[in-house]
Design a protein that fits this description.
Blueprint: E1 2-4, H1 8-18, E2 23-28, E3 32-38, E4 44-51, E5 57-58, E6 63-68, H2 69-76, E7 84-89, E8 93-99, E9 104-109, E10 127-132, H3 133-143, E11 149-155, E12 158-165, E13 168-174, E14 180-184, E15 188-193, H4 194-201, E16 209-214, E17 220-226, E18 229-235
Antiparallel strand pairs: 1-5, 1-7, 2-3, 2-6, 3-4, 4-18, 7-8, 8-9, 10-14, 10-16, 11-12, 11-15, 12-13, 16-17, 17-18
Helix pairs in contact: 1-2, 3-4
Length: about 240
């Protein structure tokens, strides 16, 4: 059985991954919960772990269970801010309860999914960017005015986010500041799906940092924290 009194972070985690991954395996271990999966279009890989210390109670047998992420997100979204979440597993179901002013319980059937452990690809990147979650989100919203894809560039130590379409184009630039750190060995230019980036970054804390690792025409690695859990993503690039 697992108990959690602060359910907001768990809601954000499930909401983000369910935006592009419909089902996947959760690994319950003696150290906490881990999840790693690739979306059906093979565009994004997500990897995260939640240490057992985050939970008020963590007493569960090691297990590897398949879950419908869309349904899990719908259930978890019903938790109220002051609710206490209780999670337990049987051989065929995940049991979720929310206890507060109103006590509710849900049962979600487990899925029989392939249990192959995905390996994280290794890349050598040419540049890193640490940027405020708020700045990144606002730049992506600007890009969405004109395009369905976004080009990330680093030129002479300046980070650019650009998009263009038939109705116009936009370019945002960020110099090194308290809210932006750029470290590059060489200039970089690479294009990515804007819809995926907006879904991925919606869980980032506006006042927190988002960490990007980039190389021209190479998948991008993005990291940020939700509470004490680190979210890691690899996003496939698009042809320029």
């Amino acid at each position: 059985m697992i108990e959690l009194s602060k359910v907001e972070d768990w809601q954000r985690i499930v909401d983000v991954i369910s935006s592009f991954i419909s089902e996947g395996n959760f690994r319950f271990t003696s150290k906490g919960i881990a999840f790693r999966a690739v979306d059906q279009s093979q565009i994004v890989m997500v990897n995260f772990t939640i240490d057992k210390s985050v939970f008020d109670v963590y007493d569960i047998e090691p297990n590897f269970v398949g879950i419908d992420l869309k349904e899990l997100a719908r259930i978890v979204a019903r938790a109220q801010p002051n609710d206490r979440m209780i999670l337990d597993l049987t051989d065929s179901e995940m049991h979720l309860s929310f206890e507060g002013d109103l006590n509710r319980s849900f049962k979600l059937p487990l899925l029989d999914l392939p249990d192959t452990e995905l390996k994280l690809p290794e890349y050598k990147f040419d540049a890193t960017v640490e940027i405020s979650g708020r700045l990144l989100k606002e730049s992506l919203k600007d890009a969405a005015l004109f395009g369905s894809s976004v080009t990330l560039k680093i030129e002479n130590g300046i980070f650019f986010i650009e998009a263009k379409g038939t109705s116009g184009k936009v370019s945002s630039s960020s110099k090194k500041s308290a809210k932006v750190e750029v470290d590059s060995k060489k200039d970089v230019v690479s294009k990515y799906s804007l819809n995926y980036l907006m879904n991925i970054t919606k869980g980032a804390d506006p006042e927190g940092k988002v960490f990007l690792e980039l190389k021209s025409d190479t998948p991008m690695r993005m990291k940020y924290s939700i509470g004490s859990s680190e979210m890691e993503f690899l996003i496939a690039y698009m042809m320029l």
